[in-house]
Amino acid sequence: MQRLKKYLFLYSLALSSMLMAQTILSAGDLVFVTVNADGNKNFDFVPLIDLDANTVIYFSDNPWDGSELKTTEGTLKYTASAAVYAGTVVSYSGAISGDWTNEDAGFNPSGTGDNILAFQGSSSSPTFIAGVGWARGTTWISSGSTTTNNSYIPSALSTSNHSIISLSTKDNYQYDTSKGIIGTKSDLRYLLSQVDNYNSNSSSAYSALSTTFTVGQAISGDSGFRMLSSPVAGTTYDDLLAPLWTQGITNADVSSGDANVWIYDPVNSLFKAMTNLTTSTYTAGNGLLIYVFSDTDNDGVDDLPVYLNVSGTESTPTVSVSTTESAWNLLGNPYESTIDADQLFSDNTDFSSVVYVWDDANSQYQSWNGTTGGLTDGLIAPYQGFWVESNAGGTTYDFKSDCKTGTVGTFLKSREARSGSLVIHVESEQGKASTYLSFSSDGYLALDIRDAFQLMPLDIKRHLAVMTFSDTTALQIQHLPNIWPGILSIPLEMVLLEPNAYGYVSIDAPIKMTWDISSLPKDIVAYLKNSNTDQYIKLVEGGSIEVQTRGVGTIPLRTGVSVYPKIDTPQYELMFVSANMETDSETPNRFSLHPAFPNPFNGTTTLSFEIPKKGSVRIYIYNIRGEQVDYIINEPQLAGKQSIQWDPSPLASGIYFCRIQFGQQSKTNKLLFMK
Predict the structure, then answer these.
(1) What is the mean pLDDT of residues 107-130?
(2) Taking the C-alpha atoms of 151, 47, 217 and 397 in order, what is their torsion angle to the nearest 10 degrees?
(3) 135-140-144-146 Cα dihedral, nearest 10 degrees
């Protein structure tokens, strides 16, 4: 009997402990969506994390004076009688009932200006979670004495991270749900901090908001690979991956089968399966790879989209990640906010200025180099993993506070003069692919830190790829100078790859090519040349052509991160002519050869030169093999500027060189003739 009593006591103790458990919230884990100073003084809030039953949260319109809550007004106590899911609208009707009680009477928000502060702990020792203020004057102050209509902002809260909302001069406000009800905690806090996203009036109170918010980063689409990260460090893998099916790992949904979650080993250039989802520690700023099954609970029904959301405190800047130098490193956004790759490039100079994000929908990487790329504006979403390549000395990667954009939606950046880009798109029944060329003053004709490699895909299936080449290196983004000598020629290749027992084999297929030259510097003209037929077309906005991929070889499978190999001479070239291209021109009182105009040309072109005195001038034309194919003049010319037309109509389309000789001096220009 004594033993039974002991067991009953232990059971009672455990049950009591369970019943008293509650969720501890951090700053920003709660947002206000309705506040009414008229009528019943009601309001609505939304928790951005799940709340356990018995969770207690206090709501006070007492001001915070910088050191304590004043007692001039009142405080409400909310006790969750049952678990509350993140995104649920919780309403205070203005009457004490159900989950709501008075902590101290006098809660009475004022239409002439007031604040509501949410906190846990106690009025004498509060841990603040969120705040909202509205006024006909100023509700949040930074100096002077508090009144019943204003308050200092508690140090744990901030308008910059949107844990404090500062509304305008009306009595009543309610969030307009058409502005967005799906996103990460950071996204929703941002949306709910914008005054323009609220309906407001000064006459009648709003009813309780009828909706449910969806909190988290969406995982949508079909089964396939995703590169992920977490805004919370520690033993968070099981929490982070809870909405997804996991297998082959201790404490996964099932421990049998092949593992579907990996981390990357940059020293040995390979992926390693995770071993335990509950004990393995996630380090902020690192990335992971998961194969997402669209059936997330193995019941035979597809469940995507699902939403990732992890409990705990967001990583605080600066997050510094240990990396391996001269290697590929799988990193990830360590914050709840979108981050800006351009700022990462500025803060991490021992790394290439390119980031790569896996796009499972198109079976290719999307990259960004500071000017162009498929990763729109270089914005890296919360929960997103990405590749960076380190240079010698690249042993630490920093995510500083300045990389956080603090916004959602379009992020605009300034561009240097004469920088720009061109995009080539290809499309077939097998999908779409794109390659990019950027032009700026710090670009090189050889490889540089802003060139993005064309990486082999993570999955193994038929896919379309397009790339340019720098010598034998395949590039998704080629970063070029904005001034160059002569005509710039860039090899271009499209391949349709079919998996086989050894890797991939390229196959013949018709595809459509389009291009976007809207961001190309205005003084650069682009042409596409078929190297097999010597045919040229000028690229104009909105244009397209039908082209054919070729069965030219095989590509073996490789482990880790690998770049597409060059398996044959590319069949196309992109050719660029700049009005500002460098020439051998000199001062007017010296011998000089000016750029031909037009160039490229179809028909005739004008050759201009200057000589400082009367003398014999010879002009010869050579083909790309160095063979003389024409001569234009071989006779004395007067001093000064001279012009002469050249008509190469008997010759084939192609690149030619104009060589002018004056006395013992000679100069050469490159010409592009297109029939």
Answers:
(1) 93
(2) 50
(3) 70
* Dihedral sign, Cα of residue 596, residue 597, residue 599, residue 604: negative
DSSP conformational letter for 229: -
Let me know: does 466 contact 435? Beta carbons within 8 Å: yes
Angle at 596 (CA atoms; ends 591, 600), nearest 5 degrees: 155
Instruction: List, in sequence order, every residue forming a beta bridge with 64; answer none if it has no partner.
Output: 69
Quick: pLDDT tens for 616-636.
899 999 988 888 999 898 888
pLDDT at position 77 is 98
Q: Is the pLDDT of residue 642 over 90?
A: no
Sign of CA dihedral 647, 651, 657, 660: negative
The pLDDT score that the predictor gives to residue 589 is 64
**Which of residues 126 and 106 earns the better pLDDT score?**
126
Q: How far is the C-alpha of 266 from the C-alpha of 80, rounded, in Å?
A: 47
CA–CA dist 504, 502 (Å, integer): 7
Mean pLDDT of all residues in 364-373: 95
Beta strands (DSSP E) in 391-502 are 396-399, 420-428, 431-440, 452-453, 463-470, 473-481, 488-499
Please give the single-letter amino acid code of residue 388: V
**Is there a cis peptide before residue 305, judged by omega within 30 degrees of 0?**
yes
Element (H, E) at 18: helix 2-20
Residue 646 and residue 618 in contact, taking contact as beta carbons nearer than 8 Å: no
Q: Which helix (H) or strand (E) holds 346?
A: helix 341-347
Delineate the domains of the chain, giving CATH numbers in brackets.
19-215 (no CATH), 217-403 (no CATH), 420-578 (no CATH), 592-673 (2.60.40.1930)
Spatial contact of 152 and 164, defined as CB atoms under 8 Å apart:
no
Give the separation between CA 331 and CA 355, rounded to whole angstroms.
10
* Residue-level pLDDT at 665: 86
Checking if the pLDDT of 15 tops 50, the result is no
Alpha-carbon distance of 365 to 96, in angstroms, equals 55
Distance CA 505, CA 460 (A): 12
Does 125 score more than 90 pLDDT?
Answer: yes
Residue 40: count other Cβ atoms within 10 Å of its Cβ: 11
Task: Output the average pLDDT for the chain.
Answer: 89
Tell me the residue type at 355. V
Average pLDDT over every residue of 581-601? 67
Residues ≥6 apart with Cβ < 8 Å to 33: 44, 45, 46, 89, 174, 175, 192, 209
User: How far apart, in whole angstroms, are the C-alpha atoms of residue 562 and residue 512?
Assistant: 27
> Can you tell me which residue has the tokens 């100069």?
667
Sequence letter at residue 159: T
Interior/surface letters 132-157, b for 16+ CB within 10 angstroms, e for the rest = bbbbeeebbbeeeebebbbbbbbebb
How far is 125 from 130, CA to CA, in rounded Å?
15
Q: Which residues lie closer than 8 Å to 585 by C-beta, 6 or more apart?
A: 592, 593, 594, 595
Of 577, 581, 638, 631, nearest to 609 (Cα)? 638
In whole angstroms, what is the distance from residue 171 CA to residue 136 CA? 9
The pLDDT tens digits for 20-33 are 578 999 999 999 99
- Peptide linkage before 598 cis (omega within 30 of 0): yes
Least confident of 270-274, 323-327, 404-408, 445-449: 404-408
Q: Which residues of 187-226 are buried (b: 16+ CB within 10 A; e: fewer)?
A: bbbbbbbeeebbebeeeebbebbeeebbbbbbbeeeebbb
pLDDT tens, residue by residue, 372-387: 999 999 999 999 999 9
